[in-house]
Amino acid sequence: MGTSVQVTPLCGVYNENPLSYLVSIDGFNFLLDCGWNDLFDPSLLEPLSRVASTIDAVLLSHPDTLHLGALPYAMKQLGLSAPVYATEPVHRLGLLTMYDQYLSRKQVSDFDLFTLDDIDSAFQNVIRLTYSQNFHLPGKGEGIVIAPHVAGHMLGGSIWKITKDGEEVIYAVDYNHRKERHLNGTGLQSFVRPAVLITDAYHALYTNQTARQQRDKEFLDTISKHLEVGGNVLLPVDTAGRVLELLLILEQHWSQRGFGFPIYFLTYVSSSTIDYVKSFLEWMSDSISKSFETSRDNAFLLRHVTLLINKTDLDNAPPGPKIVLASMASLEAGFARDIFVEWANDPRNLVLFTETGQFGTLARMLQSAPPPKFVKVTMSKRVPLAGEELIAYEEEQNRLKREEALRASLAKEEETKAILGADDNASEPMVIDTTTTHDVVSSHGPAYKDVLIDGFDPPSSSLAPMFPFFDNTAEWDEFGEIINPDDYKINDEDMDRGAMHSGDVDGRLDEATASLMLDTRPSKVISNELIVTVSCSLVKMDYEGRSDGRSIKSMIAHVSPLKLVLVHAIAEATEHLKQHCLNSICPHVYAPQIGETVDVTSDLCAYKVQLSEKLMSNVIFKKLGDSEVAWVDSAVGNTESDTTRSLLPLPSAASPHKPVLVGDLKIADFKQFLSSKGVQVEFAGGGALRCGEYVTLRKVGPTGQKGGASGPQQILIEGPLCEDYYKIRDYLYSQFYLL
């Protein structure tokens, strides 16, 4: 039997709720993502609360609320204490996302689900990994290897590969196959035939018919049209995820056109976000990395974007048309909600949504067709206490302090009595022997005597009849006092703890945000309901950075998993993709409900093999990427273990085998290779590659297999036997390893 694998959704199946899934591999429990939504509904976390204490490791895929928003609450309230693994950008940007979420809600409500200290505590000990880094789990997870790979959706976003005994479990949600300005496409296509693929069906019913250049043109034209008539443009965005792509689009367009309209990026942590992003260039697209290597040009040195961390600065900005990118994208809280209420009644203004709003939020309501003409909005804000309220608050605080001081005093007295008070027998009257000076015969008997010191008989429970004294004698030499250097070293944990209480992990939190975090002035929240007239333009464009339905199907077919688990999509999309995969790709497709456990254990039997030294001495390895491959002809022998076999040399020479080409050819990469060799090449219909005048090359699936791409693919070269034919064939062979 293969590695035991069970999958249990805790949240985020058959709907658009946050992502959270329990995966057990040979008894080791992984929590794949720990998301929450912008409504922060604790009822969504009830399934997680039942298993939180059994989690052995947490893997985070993206730095937004839907993937990690519940982490501080789960660690504080639900008993989650497992180590957390993420890439560096997911860790840093996820931390800032949660800061922004907390500060946005604390300004409009008495938010108490978690605090800034809870956020810092949850993120303080995250174990950071780089892309493709194999991390061997210790202890209970011995034998399990985890590695993050490029997802292409957000900066640092990851597809997780979990390996045990040669079998792979792939967790791939919210990936994007397309290259963008700041991100490369996903690396999901590098996996072939994993034991289990866990993926989402979020965009299974959506087909993107617009090229990136056309979409960007429509995006910029729509914005320019409203600015030129004197209107303002609001883009509700996330804190540190997809907003980075939008900032680059606007920055580059403003640089090329020389527009004078100001652009503002407004979140509580905008300055810190860009500071971090500027140091993450190695996680970004090849074009950004090469630009920095050649010209030292950092794409996120934003010259046309002003970073703001409070709305007062925006209100004090020069009057006139402007673009504001503000959090939150859901419009449930944050600066974007306030700005929408102010700008909604002006028909010249534009609210441009770049992602589908979360279910049940104001953004989702405004994206409905047709959009509402009026919306009821509850507006809240936190104001300092003043007058009688402030006096009453201070009196109450003083009363609480006095009560606390009294309790502390009483507790100290009780402690003193416990230490210095007489024991049970000490309270009995003593019989004094007058014939013996300064001696006391106690109730312990005539043979037991204590020395009477100034009329004080120390009880048996007393440590000493005097105050403690410690003789601190220092050692000296000819240079002075001898010191221990370790006494003067600053402990890293103390440094982290000090930074945690100041709300600044790496000193990159700007002073204004830090002062807001540390603001302890007495205040209260006041609320009022408004009927907002929606006269402004409402437009939605797709900048979510997810693969569409056609690409999802193609990607799953290429990966061709042995077993497939579908999560995170509405019921219609989930069932659509499930039926497609059952009919064309994989006979084992599962779409479990919340709390339903599906056993996706592989039907294969995995054995460990031992290669004898005599056999290895005749093996010739060839390098293939980061690995080495070789063809081995051997006999299989038994060992003392039931799960281990021994490979032994054949008693006689092996018969010749057919040549085997090892490698994975990407047509687009081969096109660039041929162009570099001076071959005229272009794509023809059906994905074929026309090489020169006569030769055509195409990839096809093996005959008789479902889905075409679900098995090893064949490469066909068509054309007359001419010089070009043999030249193209030699170039093709050079892309593979011959065994």
From TrEMBL:
<keyword id="KW-0539">Nucleus</keyword>
<comment type="similarity">
    <text>Belongs to the metallo-beta-lactamase superfamily. RNA-metabolizing metallo-beta-lactamase-like family. CPSF2/YSH1 subfamily.</text>
</comment>
<dbReference type="InterPro" id="IPR025069">
    <property type="entry name" value="Cpsf2_C"/>
</dbReference>
<feature type="domain" description="Beta-Casp">
    <location>
        <begin position="243"/>
        <end position="366"/>
    </location>
</feature>
<dbReference type="Pfam" id="PF07521">
    <property type="entry name" value="RMMBL"/>
</dbReference>
<dbReference type="Pfam" id="PF13299">
    <property type="entry name" value="CPSF100_C"/>
</dbReference>
<protein>
    <recommendedName>
        <fullName>Cleavage and polyadenylation specificity factor subunit 2</fullName>
    </recommendedName>
</protein>
<dbReference type="InterPro" id="IPR035639">
    <property type="entry name" value="CPSF2_MBL"/>
</dbReference>
<dbReference type="Pfam" id="PF10996">
    <property type="entry name" value="Beta-Casp"/>
</dbReference>
<keyword id="KW-0694">RNA-binding</keyword>
<dbReference type="InterPro" id="IPR001279">
    <property type="entry name" value="Metallo-B-lactamas"/>
</dbReference>
<dbReference type="InterPro" id="IPR022712">
    <property type="entry name" value="Beta_Casp"/>
</dbReference>
<dbReference type="InterPro" id="IPR027075">
    <property type="entry name" value="CPSF2"/>
</dbReference>
<keyword id="KW-0507">mRNA processing</keyword>
<feature type="domain" description="Metallo-beta-lactamase">
    <location>
        <begin position="17"/>
        <end position="226"/>
    </location>
</feature>
<dbReference type="GO" id="GO:0006398">
    <property type="term" value="P:mRNA 3'-end processing by stem-loop binding and cleavage"/>
</dbReference>
<dbReference type="InterPro" id="IPR036866">
    <property type="entry name" value="RibonucZ/Hydroxyglut_hydro"/>
</dbReference>
<dbReference type="GO" id="GO:0003723">
    <property type="term" value="F:RNA binding"/>
</dbReference>
<dbReference type="Pfam" id="PF16661">
    <property type="entry name" value="Lactamase_B_6"/>
</dbReference>
<dbReference type="InterPro" id="IPR011108">
    <property type="entry name" value="RMMBL"/>
</dbReference>
<dbReference type="GO" id="GO:0005847">
    <property type="term" value="C:mRNA cleavage and polyadenylation specificity factor complex"/>
</dbReference>
